Amino acid sequence: MAAAKKINLEKSLADLEQLVEELESGDLPLDKAMKKFEEGIRLTRGCQAALKDAEQKVQILLKSAGGESLKEFEIDDE
What we know:
Distance between the termini: 37 Å
Number of domains: 1
Low-confidence stretches: none
CATH architecture: Orthogonal Bundle
Largest sheet: none
Shape: elongated
Helix content: 55-70%
Number of helices: 2
Order of helices and strands: HH
């Protein structure tokens, strides 16, 4: 695994939530909205990388403990 920049997942998710609220308000000028959108994309990619890293660690721990491999998570479409 490459040594990626460590992020605080909870803080990044809170920051993303705040960005979404600001963008949904419609009160931002276009240039500021675009910068917020770009920041949101950056935060999203960081969160995805952190979650993938965590999943890989869990898989390694399960294999070393002789456990089952992870199964795909299914979302109910209700």
